[in-house]
Amino acid sequence: MSKKMKKKIIILLLGFVFSLNACAFKIDENGSLDSISTSVENTVETENPSILTNNGNDGEEYLIPELPKYYTNSWISQRIDQVNINTDIVNGISFAFITDVHLQANQGNSKYLMKYILDKTNVPFCIFGGDVIGAFGSKETLLSEVDNWCEWVEYVGKVYQIRGNHDYTIKTSSEENTGYTESETFTYDHIMNNNESDITGTSDMYYMLDDDIHKIRFIFINGYQNITSGEVPFGVQPLIDQNQHNWIIERIKEVENYHFIIITHSCPNGNIAGGGAGAGLPAIASAINNKSIAKYDNENIDVHIDEDFTNTTNDIICFISGHNHRDDSDIKDGVLYITTTCDATYNNDPLVIRTSGTVSEQAFDVFTIDIENRIIKTVRFGGGSNRTWKY
Q1: How many domains, in total, are found in the chain?
Q2: How far apart are CA 300 and CA 334, in angstroms?
Q3: Cβ atoms within 10 A of the Cβ of 254, count?
Q4: What are 2-50's pLDDT values in tens digits?
Q5: Is residue 341 part of a domain?
């Protein structure tokens, strides 16, 4: 065989090998191995977000153009698909839950994700678990963050809020004992005004929201009250007074065969890190689920409960809270308590690594509660994982 002929054969063989490699790579990209593709994509996003310049989808428009490009179409679609799977239930409810945004340490992308979720799925509303303000800064910092949060709420649409321990109070710095605390009236106006048209509540920032079709009632707790206002730092203290306890008991006893979801900023369960400031709430919830008598006495805050729930037909599905900046849960005395980590880019949770410039910079959940099967499922948008509970 001539040298010229050998050279042609070698070139043909090399071309064949290269074409096989190209075909194998193409199969990996467009085949059915979604979990493998997702794993590779998330690694790229975390290690070097700048690699993805077109949402990882050449020729496609971005699903959410306002987001940085490391929020790829596939990352968004996978989570939306899971939300749609979870929400396909006969009897139950879905909602988004976001908490502890602490806007000074927030990358600001959750509002675009949240609006997209409410627009593109059967999730009807968002619940905010409190803490708009960061810990340190000036009066001007506080007022600016309140304005930014009002814009967030207006942009997203249907948002039900509760008060956190930083709403609305700030300290100048960790070294200086100066700061600013807004009035109770100002706080009420900025937390409650967008909710007042479709809730039943009081003038004290606690209220309820009903889904009469599925007999689900949300109870939104106000766990804090001003002890002062004006040029004073951290002028808010934890307190659920006797009037609020009485109101909660009345709202539970006035209906039958209802399922209750209780929203608090700080988890009332002391077994969970940062929890325990719930006054008589655990006693009430436990008595309802165990069909017993709720007893609680605390002379320090002048709260006393002695209420018979032995014949109630209602039940407590769970408490959902924030405050501790951690994903956690616990069942205590027959009641499920759940916490969701902060949306701010803090690394307080040892199990959830948060990095600015990646999809882990934000963190919130879409809850689906399946009443018929007594299952709760969440889809995590951002740092962390999906979770499931039986109750």
Answers
A1: 1
A2: 27
A3: 9
A4: 444 444 444 444 443 333 333 332 323 333 223 222 222 332 233 333 3
A5: yes
